[in-house]
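Homework-ish question, so no full write-ups if that breaks the rules, but can someone show me the predicted structure for this set?
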Amino acid sequence: MAADYARFLARRILQAAFVIFAAFTASFALLYGIGGNPIVGLYSGGESGTMTPAELAQLNRQFGFDKPLAAQYLSRLGGLVTGNFGDSIKTGQPVAQLIGAALPNTAAVIGLALVIAVLLGTALALSAAYARASWLRQFLLSLPALGVSLPTFWVGLTLISIFSFKLKLLPAIGNHGPDSLVLPAVTLALPGAATIAQVLAKSMRSTIEQPFVATAKAMGLSRHVIYLRDVLRSASLPALTVTGTMIANMIGGAVVVEIVFSRAGLGQIIVQAVLNRDIPVVQGVVVLGAVAFAVISLLIDLAYPLIDPRLNVIATGAAR
Amino acid sequence: MTTKDTLPAENAPAATQGPVEAQAARRRYRRAVLQVARRPTAALSILVLAAVVLAAFLPHLFTSANPLATNPSQILLAPGHGHIFGTDEVGRDLYARVVYGAHASLTAALIAILISFAGGAILGLVAGYFGGAADMVIMRIADVILAFPAVLLTMAVVTVLGFGTLNVAAAVGTVGIAGMARVMRSEVLRVREETYVEAARVSGAPWYTALVRHVLPNSVGPLTVLAALEFGTAILSVSSLSFLGFGTPPPAPEWGALIADGQEYLSSAWWLTTIPGIVLAVTVIAANRLSRLLDGELERAMR
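A: Not a homework solution, just the prediction itself:
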């Protein structure tokens, strides 16, 4: 059994490594292959159009864009392994350094948002299961559809309006202290909470119809014990499945949230990089997003057989 | 009426020479659409979307004001007399700007969905019907696209394409192709094995006839539903990217950009962000509600 799990682990880690490699290659093909020489894109035309051909050639040499595309690809791929993502063509700073400084801020927002999303989503699904009045249950179950329909940036601005300007409870912008983390995290958590509530409510409904719940009821166990101990536990597996996609959506949502709340972080960095057409920085953040997504999917897959012994992923090799 | 519908051959001579099963499916499809229209929330959603579509293509029906006309004597007026949505920092009428903004937001979302739909249908059809190397290459590329957080990949595509609402729409649409191709492929794999496709093949029809006349029309249904489901998401994606500043440059009104402009006056002029935001949210809610009802009814009808 343990050897089986080790083999499953090794295969799954290799698979994740391949996904990261493919994502890197795709982003290189898109940004450098289709996008062309970023120096030309950045410095010819517009306000910087005054640069002489000699100066352009000098810049090209400095950033290695004078070499053939294949050579650039190999040197950047080598850099990926050693954690060197190249330099920003706008500021000359190493991309890894830019990302390293911003990552903790973004990770903090996403982490707190994840906790809020899980708590809020579970609470909503549970209250819908407990609600006896059908109008109340209908109302609670209609909330998630609303949650995924609201534009994140507008939710953020509305929360600032209410909690910062009207009630003066929480800071509107910046990242100073834990207070400033609350509104961004709540904004980011809402669509995630809606997703979790939807999946959880659906799988709880089907779990409640299973014979083991009827058995538990017949044994005289209370509704609380059955719901909280048995139903929630076995219904949480489908919710775990959507967690990977949910976190990927949160990484994207964090970009918008950081702009709305003027928080330093990866979102600020990539938005500035796109506006400046700073290709190495764009690639660094996009690849980091793919790496995060791959690692999270990996962790979720590895957690499955540990949570639910019925799932024989190891033997069949059909992870997810 | 229902008893008539259970006779599958009833309308066969009048309709096209498609297979009987496909005709019955089409009839169930129509009935499901009618069923949706009877729901009260569906009626409301249809009303909202109809208003937004009208505003997008015939904005002068809704307002006679010019969305670009500034008025120095009427800056930052709260909603009320003469300006039901208020005015902005240079005295432009917010209602007119929201009405005229519907065009950019709606067409961008439509273009994005169209690109995803067409690209996904073609690639999914090729991958599913021909299989082999084509299938492998197409689906591996789709896997790689789905390995990125969608917003980040869309921003990378925008970096390559350049800014503007059309480019943003193209980027959103391109990233959406992968998911659509997956759904289309699995449908094609199912339809390919149906007897009427085999019949067409053995009776000597060339491969493209089987593909275009039989496989395509009978496998595109779920993709249409998916496109409808994704429409609300497309509106949100496009407006988010416009909000970030990648869309149309000012002063052209677009919902996401309108909200971004109003952000500066958040503490003094709440209406500049709140009202366009509500219009945007209501549009997305209506689109999502309608497509979800349609999806549910179709599922029930096809069972």
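Now go work out the reasoning yourself. Hint: Chain A touches chain B through 50 residues (CB under 8 Å).
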